[in-house]
Amino acid sequence: MTDSQRSQTLLRRASWLSFWLGVGMLAIKVWAWWLTRSSAILSDAAESIVHVAAVGFVVYSLRLAQKPPDESHPYGHAKISFFSAGFEGGLISIAGGFILWQSIRQWIAGEAPQNLGTGSLLTAVALLINGWLGWHLLRLGRKGGSLILEANGHHVLTDAWTSIGVLAGLGLTWATGWMGFDPICAMLVALNILWSGGALMWRSANGLMDRADPVVQSALVARLDEATARHGVTWHQMRHRHLGDGHWVDFHLVFTDETTVRDAHAIASEIEREIREEVGPSTIVTTHLEPAEDHERIHGHAPGEMPRLEREGRHHPD
Ligand SMILES: [Zn+2]
Ligand SMILES: [Zn+2]
Ligand SMILES: [Zn+2]
């Protein structure tokens, strides 16, 4: 087994662990709600239902993302990561909306929670499990470069914060006897869930839209400037995007008319290697080789200048 296979197995196992702990947590929370009839705990249990659905999708997309490229998906399958993170964010946002609605409803109806002791104990158990699991998933996801697992870690940590909010609500109700604390804490919990759900969806949309990472952008420009100057060539029209498991970079290189194809290819391959070194080993670099003088005759504009069609608002990369 290679290192990357071992790390992929580790990530898949972590996603299954997250799934089964989620199922266990759903059982604990439904039980706690049955005992207490607390608004905050019901909200927490409702989140657990979408939670299990979301983590089920995480398990599936992680498997898919790890599949090597094939004929129908020549760029690989890792882009499902962005969809998975967005789907998870969408589901927990729905749960956040439900919690908000439920706590307002309970506030108006004036229902009081019961069995606060047992309810608090069960919530504390859920808090400990989620706190550990969230930390574990975040650590593994960052180490293994998996956005799917990292997003799931953020989600599980949000759930740990939810449990803290629920505990605060029950504790304050118990200490003061004022029933308003339970729905107030539930609302704060809901706002926190909506916030992290929104953040996950934002990140996923940026990934799907191939938003250029400014840090990668400036690193690429600096390295390209330096490498091309050293090899006595120039570059233009660099583009880069992240497909979920690695960067894809392409740019044009301009050589003198006298350079042979063999020499140009050797220099281009060397620059491609240096770019991979800069951005990371899973980076894929493609270059387009051009002669300085003939560029204008073939493409209709000087190297690095805007093509005529692009100036008129149409896309025509060359
Ligand atoms: Zn959750
Ligand atoms: Zn080649
Ligand atoms: Zn060009």
Please tell me about this protein's structure.
This protein has 318 residues and is mainly alpha-helical. It has 2 domains: 3-208, Up-down Bundle (Alpha-lytic protease prodomain-like), CATH 1.20.1510.10; 214-311, Cation efflux protein, cytoplasmic domain (Alpha-Beta Plaits, 2-Layer Sandwich). 70% of the residues lie in helices and 8% in strands. The chain contains 10 helices and 3 strands. The chain has a 3-stranded mixed sheet, with helices on one face. The longest helix has 34 residues, at 3-36. It is elongated, with a radius of gyration of 26 Å. The protein starts with a helix and ends in a 7-residue tail after the last helix. The mean pLDDT is 87. The protein binds zinc ion (ZN) (3 copies).
Report a brief summary of the structure.
This protein is mainly alpha-helical and 318 residues long.
CATH architecture of the largest domain: Up-down Bundle
Helix content: over 70%
Strand order of the largest sheet: 1-2-3
Ligands: zinc ion
Q: What topology does this entry show?
A:
Blueprint: H1 3-36, H2 39-65, H3 80-109, H4 116-143, H5 147-176, H6 181-208, H7 214-231, E1 234-242, E2 247-255, H8 261-279, E3 284-291, H9 294-299, H10 308-311
Parallel strand pairs: 2-3
Antiparallel strand pairs: 1-2
Helix pairs in contact: 1-2, 1-4, 2-3, 2-5, 2-6, 3-5, 3-6, 4-5, 5-6, 7-8
The structure holds zinc ion (ZN) (3 copies).
Key structural traits:
single chain; 318 residues; mainly alpha; Alpha-lytic protease prodomain-like; Alpha-Beta Plaits; 3-stranded mixed β-sheet; 8% strand; binds zinc ion
